[in-house]
Write a structure and sequence with these properties.
The chain is of the alpha/beta class and 406 residues long. The chain is built from nine helices and 26 strands. The structure holds flavin-adenine dinucleotide. The site of flavin-adenine dinucleotide has 31 residues, from α1, β2, α2, α5 and α8.
């Protein structure tokens, strides 16, 4: 019997296992490895980081979805994998030999080598880090009471991309709660985003992007744009504005909470395995395998797929991770059943919606633009759909987003 090893139980890995369990009938045994016993919905990390929903709301047990007759689930950390020997090395378990391996190890925070970013700012790439951000903010608010240092009330988000903006919206919603802890008015909680890009929300057309920026201003979120972050010191972000050179003194913004959301890369294990990659992403074959290794699939945030006639790979999203997983399960099932493999992988985005807090959002879906409250409902429906694809109806009932009426 063939052995399929799946590394990572995020959107890509878990969905692959769920589909394979349906499509395979004794042709192969699956081993799924994940460093936690639970799956978390990464797309809601910012809500946990702001303390607006509890971590349990976005997590569910992986074991509940695993059919032990078809899949062995191992909770452990993958330390490395070798395409040459077809071995996966784990921290606390014996090496595993595979016939097919699906690498779905997801993303890590990218600091771009900026000095002090790792030591002096808080990343937000998993549920533990999101909880740490919430705890840090609450501690800062409590620390304001004895000394009235306004620094404790300031929050800086480094990076105003999709994730940074979604986080800013959630922090704005959380202001009344933070203010209560600090014993101040909500308006005294300052939120600033610092970002190098020329245009915010580049994934949206001008009308939508401008709407998003207006919303951020209305929520009293300061946006420092055209600002290249140079260094992070404890409680301090140093940056230069476009056009300024190294002779210009650095600008500084001060805050008791500094959160790092400038970007992500694919898992570093991909590069360590000797695969040709850029920022942890491998340009995969039309069947989503490594360029010279048809036994090794790479999906989700560790994979790069070029759109037809495109110049840049598709952005990494949960949506494309799920779509890749569906494809890989079909492809593997066809190979194991000696059937013709499906045509080359292709992707059709169903749209993108960015939330700015719980009841405001903006986005495009099925060729239509959505803004404000209707967009926030759409966002929650999209999250429920992903949850259905991963956790099934049971998880949608328990963890779905039905907080629609306000
Ligand atoms: C705040 C935020 C908001 C987002 N919003 C959206 C959105 O609205 N829509 C959208 O489509 N996308 C969104 N994204 C992007 C989306 O979350 C990612 O593209 C998606 O999670 C990628 O799926 P994946 O399966 O590749 O990786 P992940 O979901 O990160 O899963 C990787 C899994 O591998 C495990 N793992 C990692 N390393 C190891 C190891 N060494 N050993 C064992 N296990 C390991 C991890 O614990 C995790 O379970 C958002 C991301 C963030 C951070």
């Amino acid at each position: 019997m063939k052995h399929i090893v799946v590394l990572g139980a995020g959107y890509a890995g878990l969905r692959t296992v769920i589909r394979l369990q349906k499509l395979l009938h004794g042709q192969a045994h699956i081993t799924l490895i994940n460093q936690n016993p639970y799956h978390y919905q990464t797309t809601a990390l910012h809500e946990v980081a702001a303390g607006n929903i509890p971590p349990e709301k976005i997590c569910f047990d992986i074991a509940d979805l695993v059919d032990p007759a078809k899949t062995t689930f191992i909770v452990d950390r993958v330390s490395s994998f070798s395409p040459q020997t077809r071995l996966v090395h784990l921290i606390d378990h014996d090496d595993l030999h595979y016939d097919y391996c699906i690498v779905a190890l997801g993303f890590v925070s990218e600091t771009f080598g900026i000095e002090g970013a790792e030591e002096n700012s808080l990343p937000m790439t998993n549920v533990r880090q999101a909880m740490q951000i919430n705890e840090h903010i609450e501690n800062q608010m409590a620390a304001y009471q004895p000394n009235h240092d306004a620094n404790h009330l300031r929050i800086i988000i480094c990076g105003a991309g999709f994730t940074g903006i979604e986080l800013a919206g959630e922090l704005a919603d959380a202001r009344p709660r933070y203010a209560k802890i600090a014993g101040v008015e909500p308006g005294q909680i300052e939120i600033e985003m610092i970002d190098a890009s020329k245009r915010l929300l580049p994934m949206f057309n001008d009308a939508l992007a401008n709407y998003g920026i207006r919303l951020l201003h209305q929520l009293n979120i300061r946006i420092t744009q055209h600002a290249r972050i140079n260094k992070i010191q404890p409680d301090l972000v140093d940056y230069r504005l476009d056009g300024e050179d190294s002779t210009t003194p650095l600008h500084q913004s001060q805050a008791g909470t500094i959160i790092w959301t400038t970007g992500v890369s694919g898992s570093s294990l991909v590069g360590q395995a000797g695969l040709q990659q850029r920022r942890g992403r491998v340009m995969v074959s039309p069947h989503l395998t490594a360029p010279n290794d048809d036994q090794l699939y790479l999906i989700g945030d560790v994979a790069a797929v070029m759109p037809p006639n495109g110049k840049r790979p598709y952005p990494t999203t949960a949506q494309i991770a799920l779509s890749m997983a569906n494809y890989v399960a079909e492809d593997l099932a066809a190979r194991l059943n000696n059937r013709e493999r499906p045509d080359a992988y292709s992707y059709h985005s169903q749209g993108t919606v960015a939330s700015i807090g719980n009841t405001r959002a903006l986005g495009m879906a099925s060729g239509h633009s959505y803004m404000g409250y209707p967009a926030s409902v759409l966002k929650k429906m999209i999250m429920n759909k992903s949850l259905l694809e991963l956790g099934g109806a049971k998880q949608v009932i328990h963890k779905g987003r039905f907080d629609l009426y306000h």
